[in-house]
Design brief:
50 helices; leucine-rich repeat; globular; alpha/beta; Protein TONSOKU; 54% helix; coiled coil; 5-stranded mixed sheet; 15-stranded mixed sheet
């Protein structure tokens, strides 16, 4: 790089334009290879400007080619096409075949990228295919032309052409053609003796690895992916290496090896972070890691549900022939629906097939043909995903025959579409199209899906543009019909059971059943206990005849695939992020968005709610043409099982003394809450003076305890909200002292059971008001809502009621606000005038809100006095800072500005400079996680003057930031007299930056230093500690999490920390402390000079023994109050022995993870699945005997309990994600609650959460980013 820049400067000095352009192109190419695309673009533009002005037109060829490639890597596709087309035109004008081949290849890649992003751009697909084929033809000509001096060079281009066409065929789901093309490329490599570690081979191996993953040939996939990674490592291709590990992670994810998948993603993440401008790649990897973690949780839930299924099967065996048999079978059917759903979500298709077969057996025992046909449909999907197309078609036909026998037209149509999917996937495209065409004329709801798939077939499979265009018009017309409600009219005239209307009692009964159950048909599985209309006590034999003659009429069937996904919509929508985007999701979402909403209030989670499935960063995306895919499977009819699903009502009933409250004051709710506590409402009457009101207490029940303090806030706000306007005009709100029932004062954390003993429907709770306080801003906000006819945001109202802050401190974080919904509040704020703190963090606010806030400050008479402006975690962009710069009032008042978590980008650099230069009293600036780079940091450093009062600066979690930029900033901070707090979390720090950091620590009075994720290593930490120890600093908080500390260096690190003294909070999470480091840390905690109040040791590989020793060390420690030991027992031995259920499910895990190509479940309809066989216990059925497990647990849990009892000063203990069993947690909590001194011990135990704390301390209530010191 230095040589290239010297050459450029010399050429510019002597005026040699050709050399100047060449060196600029060379520098740009170096930056491009490093992944520094923005800098590369800058130099290439210099090259373009020089070449276009001073050089012959032919000199622009390599320039246009390079700029087009950089734009492509930056995903700026329109700009890439401009330069690539110019490149091709210039090549044609100069008759240069070599450049024509390069330009055609690039154009093909860009159009391919457009096609994969839009997923339906037929022209992009055709152009990609056209240019790829043209590039292959030109490469073959150049390779075989003996007169071409560079024919040998174009061997690689010829191989790449095979790779590109193979890649395109994969995207079109033509796996056979893709495999043939890619293997041909490898054959050419071998025949032409291309080097073993050539990059052309790596691309072929990469795509073959992905292809065989889709074909479920795991061995071949892994072989090719590992070869790809090895080649990229050898040639130093970081981007290719990262994508190779992403492919490997995807492979592990497909076979449910989630731990291996996460490790591969983390390796890819470390590699990608070395690339300057690959933020999109890094962000997508992070999202994929979260996806796999959620998949791992789903797998755990699946294993637990599988155990429940086994227990239920044993109960059914005992209940054979009794009145309870049918009830238990229905419960088993519901449980199997959930297992099928979870298996589908994590791609565990062998398990999916196993559960589907069992569902078929249950449906047979229930004598329910509808459930039986649904189960056949699910079995067919299992075989489809396992790529056993013959059996998939066989089971789909079974399903179709049963649907036809019961007259279910929609079911028949769905099966035809699924058969079309089988035929299309197996390569019989003509028969697939015929299957889709057979659906035409059926129900409109299914016809939409059929039209979408026909459109795909004509557009992609047959390249029939005219027919595809006609079908697109039909789809649009059908959408219009659906919007106009024609679908409802059609449903009302249709009866699936009888073709004659009739006036018989049976007919009338059927119609009635249809009217009451049509909306819930094929909807959310019911809870046990909510069963069908049949007599549960009747023996099964008596229902055989009834099931034939008394089927319910079904007028409408919501799409089963969308319904299945929406059963747990929150999980599916998050879980689907990062996974392959399937054409099915696109088609069915289109249909779902256009279906009319059901008027039934119970049908909140209906098929009309679309599912958004985003695509993964895995190099290439699969677009299956038919809607029956990974995000869809019919979970079976529930026409026999009704589920009352109530939408979550507003906490307060809209009545006060018998008068209705205006609708505008009722709280709006976003969605239904499928929770037993909500379905079993705790609506209680409260008496406040002469007024009464009803409040739903369900939202305030946690861990079967009632939070009285939250109830007080709810009652106070609801009371004020429902007052008549004349009573509300004074703006006085009640401060509730206590609440009584039958003379008994309700205590905080009241157990729900005890509470229900106090209260019944006939008794009201008496509210005792201590005083009335004015809340002018609350009143103004409610009045503004009434004026604008906007609903009151109850979350915001409770925030304004906060009695711990003055009305000058406005904190409305995390209220779900947007630019529109916050308008009433901003109007109220304008009338409020005075303001010292404005916190609107954790909302979805944009630049429009900032513009209004600027107007509020400009119109205010308050020209002086400190102001805190907290805007973090919103949707503000760079121009939001422009509004701050334009507000002269802020120049004199702004002291704290928190902008973290907003996408400001480098466009904000000039605004930040202006703020630092003009806001003379600004002492705290937080710009963490704002997508800024070195350029902004350098502008910030330049804007800091020596007389600045800046004392707090946070710039962490921004990438890429170079070491030079960090050094410049730290050098500038050394000149500040008051600087005391610095956060560099998540920024890689090199040695020069560490030296500058040490100089800053020596010259400044640092009290807080956050270096989490900087990977400064043991040497850097020791050097920093020694520097701090020699100065006058008094560090209070030190964050060294994920800094790469090793166990053998940790004794010295601990010794330096002890010598340093005065540290109150220490975070060393994510470092490999191990047993050696654990001993050193234990010695530090025992030392009388230890002043720590908070210690975080999460994910430090302490092991169970280490956890025990750390807690034991606190026996004589009087300072430590908070200890976090989450995720420290990760070894298989420990997790197996700690979790009493883990041994029992080991075999199930192995079956899921060791899936292979030949795996097949017995296909007989009368087979006995594994769960029906006798369940073994003892040494032969588990990895460790129960005696060994119990001995291990008893000994170690007892040691932990004794250590907890001895650590009496500890106020918070975090033992989350250590795989403790429920029994062990209860035992430890008993030790905790019995040993706290004068305070009451409490716990917060949930999924992945085990917190023990004392009253008065919040274990996880406040987000780390919202902490104020």
């Amino acid at each position: 790089m230095r040589e290239a820049k010297r050459g450029y400067k010399e050429a510019a000095r002597v005026g040699n334009r050709e050399e100047e352009a060449r060196w600029a192109n060379e520098i740009g190419d170096i930056h491009k290879r490093r992944g520094e695309y923005i800098e590369a673009l800058r130099w290439l533009r210099i090259d373009y400007e020089i070449s276009s002005k001073h050089l012959p037109q032919k000199q622009l060829l390599p320039t246009c080619q390079s700029i087009g490639e950089v734009y492509l890597r930056l995903n700026r596709l329109k700009e890439a096409l401009v330069y690539q087309k110019k490149h091709l035109q210039l090549a044609k004008d100069s008759d240069d075949l070599i450049e024509q081949q390069r330009a055609s290849t690039q154009l093909g890649r860009t159009y391919h990228e457009i096609f994969t992003e839009t997923e339906s751009d037929h022209n992009a697909m055709r152009n990609a295919k056209k240019y790829f084929k043209s590039a292959m033809k030109l490469a073959r000509t150049l390779k075989e032309n003996p007169t071409c001096m560079k024919s040998g060079f174009f061997l690689k281009e010829f191989i790449d052409a095979h790779n590109n066409i193979g890649m395109l065929e994969m995207d079109l789901d033509n796996y056979e053609g893709a495999e043939k093309m890619l293997l041909q490329g490898l054959k050419i490599c071998n025949e032409e003796e291309v080097g073993e570690y050539d990059d052309a081979r790596s691309r072929l191996h990469h795509n073959l690895g992905y292809l065989y993953t889709e074909l479920r040939e795991w061995g071949k996939a892994r072989e090719h992916i590992e070869k790809d990674i090895l080649i990229c490592k050898k040639i130093g291709h970081l981007q290719g290496e990262a994508k190779g590990f992403i492919n490997l992670a995807e492979l592990h994810h497909r076979v449910q090896k989630h731990g291996d998948a996460i490790r591969c993603y983390e390796t890819a993440l470390d590699t990608a972070r070395h690339l300057e401008d690959e933020d999109a790649l890094v962000n997508q990897i992070n999202r994929n890691i979260e996806t796999v973690k959620k998949a791992s949780k789903v797998l755990e839930e699946l294993k637990k549900d599988e155990q429940k299924l086994k227990r239920l099967m044993r109960i059914i065996c005992d209940a054979r022939g009794t009145a309870n048999e049918r009830k238990h079978l229905l419960e088993q059917n519901i449980l199997l629906d959930g297992l099928i759903e979870k298996a589908c979500m994590i791609f565990a298709w062998p398990k999916h097939l196993e559960f589907a077969k069992r569902k078929k057996n249950v449906a047979s025992e229930l004598c329910d043909k509808e459930k039986l046909s649904d189960s056949y449909l699910v079995i067919g999907e299992s075989y489809l995903k396992l790529r056993n197309f013959c059996k998939a078609r066989k089971w789909y036909m079974k399903s179709w025959n049963v649907y036809r026998s019961i007259g279910d037209l929609e079911g028949q149509a769905l099966v035809k579409i699924n058969i079309g999917q089988v035929l299309d996937t197996s390569g019989d495209w003509i028969s697939a199209l015929e299957a889709f065409e057979e659906v035409q004329g059926k129900l409109l709801s299914v016809q939409m899906t059929a039209l979408d798939n026909m459109h795909y077939s004509h557009m992609i499979r047959f390249d029939n543009v005219d027919e595809a265009r006609k079908l697109q018009l039909d789809i649009q017309n059908l959408k219009s019909l659906l919007k106009e409600g024609v679908l409802n009219d059609q449903h009302s005239d249709y009866c699936s059971e009888t073709e004659t209307g009739g006036n018989s009692p049976e007919s009338n009964c059927h119609i009635s059943a249809s009217q009451t159950s049509s909306d819930s048909s094929r909807s959310i599985p019911s809870l046990p206990g909510h069963v069908e209309e049949f007599d549960e006590d009747a023996p099964l034999a008596s229902l055989v005849c009834l099931s034939k003659n008394s089927r319910k009429t079904k007028t409408s069937r919501s799409d089963p695939h969308v319904v299945r996904a929406n059963i747990t919509s929150g999980i599916v929508q998050d879980f689907s992020r990062g996974l392959k985007n399937l054409w099915c999701g696109l088609n069915i979402n289109k249909q779902s968005q256009d279906l009319p909403q059901s008027s039934d209030s119970r049908d909140i989670l209906s098929a009309s709610m679309p599912i958004h499935i985003e695509e993964s960063i895995c190099s290439f995306k699969c677009k299956s043409p038919i809607f029956v895919a990974d995000n869809g499977v019919d979970v079976g009819s529930l026409s026999d099982v009704g589920v009352p699903i109530a939408s979550k009502s507003a906490p307060s009933e809209s009545m006060l003394n018998g008068y209705p409250v205006p609708v505008r004051f009722q709280q709006s709710q976003d969605c239904a809450c499928f929770d037993p506590l909500v379905n079993n409402h705790h609506k209680i009457k409260f008496k406040l003076g002469h007024d009464t009101l009803c409040v739903d207490l369900s939202p305030f029940i946690e861990d079967d305890k009632l939070n009285i303090e939250l109830v007080k806030v709810e009652v106070a706000c609801s009371y004020f909200l429902q007052l008549l306007e004349q009573k509300r005009s004074k703006g006085l709100l009640p401060v509730i002292g206590c609440m009584k029932t039958s003379g008994t004062v309700l205590c905080s954390s009241e157990p729900v059971v005890d509470f229900e003993h106090h209260v019944n429907e006939d008794v009201m709770i008496e509210v005792v008001v201590d005083e009335w306080v004015p809340k002018r801003l609350m009143k103004s906000y409610i009045d503004s809502c009434e004026k604008l006819s906007e609903p009151v945001n109850m979350h915001l109202l409770k925030k304004l009621y906060n009695l711990e802050v003055s009305e000058d401190e406005v904190i409305i974080s995390d209220c779900g606000l947007q630019d529109v919904s916050i308008s009433p509040f901003l109007n109220a704020l304008q009338a409020h005038k005075t303001l010292a703190v404005l916190d609107i963090s954790h909302n979805s606010l944009g630049n429009e809100t900032i513009e209004k806030i600027q107007q509020i400050f400009n119109s205010s008479n308050q020209k002086y006095g400190g102001l805190t402006l907290d805007l973090h975690c919103n949707r503000f962009g760079p121009t939001a800072l422009f509004q701050i710069c334009e507000c002269s009032v802020l120049y004199a008042r702004l002291e704290v500005l928190n902008l973290s978590g907003n996408r400001l980008t480098d466009s904000c650099s000039s605004y930040l400079s202006a703020i630092l230069e003009n806001c003379k009293v600004l002492f705290s600036l937080n710009i963490e996680q704002c997508s800024i780079t070195s350029r902004t940091i350098e502008r910030v450093a330049a804007a800091i003057s020596f007389d600045s009062v800046l004392s707090h600066l946070s710039i962490g979690k921004n990438n890429p930031i170079s070491g030079n930029a960090i050094v410049s900033l730290l050098t500038k901070l050394q000149s500040l007299k008051r600087f005391s707090e610095l956060s560099l979390s998540g920024i890689r720090i090199n040695k020069p930056a560490i030296n500058s950091l040490c100089q800053l620590a020596q010259s400044s009075s640092l009290t807080v230093l956050k270096l989490g994720g900087t990977y400064i290593g043991s040497d850097g930490v020791i050097k920093l500690n020694e520097t701090v120890g020699t100065g006058l600093q008094e560090l209070v908080r030190l964050d060294l999490s994920y800094c790469g500390l090793k166990s053998h260096d940790f004794p010295r690190v601990c010794q330096n920390l002890i010598l340093l003294g005065g540290i109150l909070e220490l975070n060393i999470a994510g470092n490999s402390i191990g047993q050696e480091g654990c001993n050193a840390l234990r010695s530090a905690l025992i030392d009388p000079g230890c002043s720590l109040k908070s210690l975080i040791l999460e994910n430090c590989q302490l092991g169970l023994e280490g956890i025990i020793r750390i807690i034991q060390a606190l026996a004589d420690n009087e300072s430590l109050e908070e200890l976090r030991l989450a995720e420290n027992t990760n070894s298989f031995k420990e997790t197996t022995l700690l979790n009493s259920d883990a041994v029992e499910t080991t075999n199930a895990i192995c079956e899921v993870n060791n899936e292979n190509d030949g795996l097949e479940v017995a296909d007989s309809e009368d087979e006995t699945t594994r769960e029906e066989r006798p369940i073994l216990s003892g040494p032969d059925a588990s990895c460790a005997s129960s005696c060994q497990r119990n001995s291990f647990m008893d000994r170690h849990i007892q040691d932990i309990c004794e250590a907890i009892i001895s650590s009496r000063n500890l106020q918070l203990l975090d033992l989350s994600r250590n795989k403790f069993s429920e029994e062990a947690i209860d035992t430890m909590y008993a030790a905790w609650s019995s040993s706290r001194c004068d305070v009451k011990g409490s716990k917060h135990v949930g999924k992945d959460v085990v917190h023990f704390f004392v009253d008065g301390s919040n274990c996880c209530a406040k987000k780390p980013c919202c902490r104020r010191d």
